[in-house]
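Researcher: Following up on the earlier apo prediction. This time include the ligand. It's zinc ion, with the SMILES given after the sequence.
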Amino acid sequence: MTNTTTQDQLQVFIFDSCPVRGEIVSISESWQTILARKSYPAPVRQLLGDLVAAGVLLSGTLKFNGSLIIQAQGHGPIQLLVMECNADLSMRATAKFDENYNWASQSDYSLKELLNPQGGGQLVITLDPADRQPGQQPYQGIVALHDGHEAVKSIAQAIMLYMKNSEQLDTRIWLASDERSCGGLLIQRLPDHGGQQQIDANLTEESWQRLQALSDTVSHAELLTIAPKDLMRRLFLEESHHHGVRSFDPRNIRFACRCSRLKVADMLKMLGELEINSILDEQGQVESRCEFCGQNYLFDAVDCKQVFSAANLTDGIARPPEAKQ
Ligand SMILES: [Zn+2]
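Model: Understood. Below is the ligand-bound prediction.
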């Protein structure tokens, strides 16, 4: 029952007894790939790991062909945490933070302390459809991380707020991350389809409460070390005796970066020929490093000239800033 996780997987399941969907994710190899690209202080790594696990869980709930992008933005020692997950569960993530901050002294790993100690800060969730037409805006949902005097403390809490506000779905999320892996559990109450009697509603409420109580027993160690399917059985064994848990085939997760030379060229077009020429004058070439995978893109004077002569032909198809790289 306690196999060590060997694959990065998302396990989706539903309960026969009530309209509740569950998901368990475990990510090791792809998480190692992300950590190998950049050196993160422990508090940043912890929050980024939570975001990565949460992003895959959220992707799993969406019937959506495109990219899900979650950004936690603030003005504290961390300025930005970002993760992107595509419909095929390929994903990437990175963080921007103050390198000179005294990270070793930081014992409070909460969103409030690290992103918005003075208030403000937000979680922005973008759904960018694969077939988005030029000029069409991606869908965006925003959760304020500081609502009145109440600050959102964790990634899990922020995502649950988003689900409640944007999707009107009761969702509970448990997350864990360390230097080896990250993982999470989600249960979500699916909408009733009407026509049911009051007694059913009461039973559903009872089941929902019971499933939350069972989920609440999950430990960080379990989320980080047990394969999703085994953890599903362990947590909901009692439930499966009574009513049954139906699980789908586990889906694989992998790290993949969407950056390309073409996308960098698009970004140069957006900056404009004047700006690019002044960089060329100063540095002899334009250099762009991908924040997600570390790939370096170099454009010399000849390359830049080509970018702008092509721009004249395809004017008006500039990409929005969040799609760069
Ligand atoms: Zn890249």
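Model: Residues 257, 259, 290, 292-293, 295 surround zinc ion (CB under 6 Å).
Researcher: Noted. I'll compare it with the apo version next.
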